[in-house]
Amino acid sequence: MEILLSQLFNGLSGGSILLLAALGLALTFGQMGVINMAHGEFIMAGAYTAFVVQGVLGDAGLSLLVSLPTAFVVGGLLGLALEALLLRRMYHRPLDTLLVTFGVSLVLQQLARDVFGTAGVDVAAPGWLSGPVEVLGFTFPKTRLFILVIAVAAVVLLSALLAFTSLGRRIRATVQNRALAESSGISTRRTDRTTFFVGSGLAGVAGVALTLMGSISSNLGTAYIVDAFLVVVVGGIGQIKGAVIAAFVLGVAQSWIEYSTTASIAKVAVLALIVVFLQARPQGIFVVRTRSLV
Amino acid sequence: MNLKVFTGRWAVVGGFVLAAVLLLVVAPALLSSFRLGLLGKYLCYAMVAVGIGLAWGRGGMLVLGQGVFFGLGAYIMAMHLKLADAPASTGVPDFMALISSDGVPVWWEPFRSGVVTIIAVLLVPPAVAVLLGLATFRRRVRGAYFAILSQALAAAFAILLIGNPRSTGGSTGLNNFKGFFGFSLRDPANRLMLYIIAAVSLLAMVALARQLMVSRYGELLVACRDAEERVRFLGYDPAVVKTVAYAVAAVMAGVAGALFVPIVGIISPNDVGIIPSIGLLVGVAVGGRTTLLGPVLGAIAVAWAETSLSERFPSGWTYAQGLLFVLVVAFLPGGLASLRSVLRGWRERRRPPRAAEEPPVPSLSGSSR
Q: How much is the pTM?
């Protein structure tokens, strides 16, 4: 029982990382149908931003707090550039966006290797995040708790943005019915661009959070992108709550199966479970109902 | 009308014979043993590309996990070769004996037999493809969802291989093969034989793909790509149509993998994971995904470019590969095969260049907003 619970905590922690990586994807995939493989490299860019900021500022605590918003802007600007230069002209063929963004991700990875070297770099965690903390009798590294907090904060802020602001209303309208939103006077072009900025910015934040987990290298994004996409597939399109549930369920499942077998078998088992799950709900946990056939 | 079909058919036969002469007579006469081995490797990638052209170009399924089928064929063949190379006294392959003394895992044992190995190479990859294909297509999981699942399969496969070093060689993979069904791999004559087998297999696959494309089934496959619901309304089952194409593509990738092992001499997770799996699509996209020969020529050209570029600039190839993806898929979705019609469209100036005979979009799913 105790092992089960401690694995549950591990799973929640893994789930919060998945969630941070997947949140921005759920947003852009849900609204535009764009499959952004370069999202993983935006995460990487966020992580390297934290590294650079720490190199400039020195102090670990201050630089962590500075790099969170900085990485959001860096990721967002990268996303904006990608949207304006390439994806804008490809909205009518969403599957091809996957390949184009994969090409972009290859270039960004190699760029990171050439700039920062192939060896991993480390970002020091601030003193107030070192050591474990006790939660309900279980010890838990403070860094992991901090990532959980960031993930929850990101979800709350994003939900508030979608629910209460006029931008959020425009985004929801565009997701539900693009043509009708457009004819009601919403500039879907501008909404798309803003959504891409926010979604990619969240990847940058995820990157900063990942620097607390270990050293970062150019393949940081590759490690998370597929799992993040699986979260989106299981969660369903167009709603944040689907991604939240899916991320934590997958995180906990991975951690429980991993405990009784090995990490590699757990990966395969989770994938098999996802395929089985899609038999019951082919469109994920939550579906935005439309009347279209496709 | 009849005459046109007649000449068309002779053009096909003539082109096929020409390709056979080039591959089987001219290339072995001109190339050194080393270069011929490289060409054999490119031919293996071309075989995978034929299957991708069928599944992706014709069927609209974005198959991002062909490395899995390639890897299944390759590892099955590699296991057999390792077992055949093992010293007769113990029967344990060299790398296993180094790691532990537990002997050969039970699931390796069937591959001591060459017949079982060949049957497994031909049957295991399509079996996996049918399983995943039916599970997804029957529930109408498609488009991006299917692409992501096939990609996740590649990721899981690579992780599984790395995670079990004792039975799969881990991240180093399996290498250092000495013989191939009793023929020494050191002998240039046997290496030439392997090349010939690869060339003949590729020619056979191209012929098969051509017959599938011109048949009624080929029409159905394209129909599934362009308007799956209508195919369903007409009384066909798109899931079966698509699964067949996916399974055929898997067989081609599996055979390619099985030939890759003796020709190249190594198979490792680096050849089957996510990045190599998507990498297999570059050539197909460059050549023209919807055409018969575009994927083959594209794959060979891209593989050749990779070898010659990375000989000179080690990190240059990654940039080139990334840019190829971006430029071709974003600006020339029909590949080089569509270049002429695109240019003609520009010259006419009446229509915007993109509208000029752009090949149909692979799949319309996801655009239902």
A: 0.88
